[in-house]
Amino acid sequence: MKFFRLLTPLLLTIVAVLCFAPAAWAFCGFYVAKADTKLYNKASQVVIARDEERTVLTMANDFQGEVKDFAIVVPVPTVLQKEQVRVTEPKIIERLDAFSAPRLVEYFDSDPCAVTDSVNLPAAAPRSRAVNQEAEKTSDRSLGVTVEARFNVGEYDIVILSAKESGGLETWLKRNGYKIPRGAKQLLKPYIRSSMKFFVAKVNLDKFEKSGYQFLRPLQISYQSPKFMLPIRLGMINATTEQDLIVYILSPQGQAEITNYRTVKIPSNTNIPLFVKDEFGEFYKSMFQTVYTKEDRKVGFLEYAWDMSSCDPCSADPLTQEELKQAGVFWLDDNSGSNLPVSPSFRRPSSKSNVFISRLHVRYTRDKFPEDLIFQQTANSESFQGRYVLQHPFQGELKCQAGREYKQSLPKRFEQEAQTLAKLTNWNIQDIRNKMKLSIGNLTYSWWENLLSWLGL
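Above: the chain's sequence. Below: its structure in token form.
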């Protein structure tokens, strides 16, 4: 399973404002940029909505190439029927991406002379808080492959297969017009040994042309299984570079984590120099690569964990109830159930309607991630986000004693920001200081000359 995201420019747009007041220190924070999947030119996106043993899995199909060449083979734990498969709109995944992406925020210091108590600069930490279609079952005994189901959904022709050996499955797929990469045989073996089935999809060209869509829509499958896992090994066939995978896990409980690899939080809640506002995309990619290397390239990173009903600050509005249903959430209140993307047996009691989102980012290669990802849900509802802070100094006159002390504290604060950025990204510290010098030089008030001495100027 291998999907590609097209690389597009990062939009540095202010879309939300947050104001709050810790103690007597009032300030406002502005969301200014996000590290969404547009930063990566090879990134798969998967949405998993799961409660107990019930799962709705959505796969983003931003395939790059001729649609006639598109085909996917996804191991699944059970035989799927037509009513368990649907297509959904790419916008839902885009909304989840925008809502949960690591973000850059900026805050502005208040006038230190306007307060009487000595208050530390705000740390800006986030607040916690099928109709069954009876498909004709045929088998090719020489290959050991059985067609368990065959149907059409939207612009896709779907076949559900079981197999006795990987060579036979590979041969069957090729004979039936599925273009699969070399080396699939070896990677198919473990799934056959564990009695998994194979969800196979290709584009029905006639239906695609009539649909008017320019891109393939995401496929969504629902099933019940004790296995809470995501197969990633097939995505490594013929892969020449590291693959980025973003998994959005929606749960009525709390944070989700990977169990067969360590899950660690991305570095967060750090103050960094002001010039990063214009370089946030490069900053985040450098920071991610640095921590990825430090962790020996074999961990999954938690980039976001939050109750879907709120955010602090918000880089995008929380998804509506209807949008969450489109994303596969099947336990929300719905008297009719007519809009649910899964069978009625997936409905939950009306008292259970909360949605918690975990955003996991995995960068993987065959040598560091030899196993598929296995997840577990937890009761941990602690909020977390990848969040990086620009703290603007106060720009007015400072005539009081507190103001003079504030002024004297700034050089140390700026140096700390420079050191933090160098540690996070492995960028050269002197290059960082030089860029900070340019940033400071753009400010207009006279006493900055005293601070430039800190920069050796």
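The mean pLDDT is 79.
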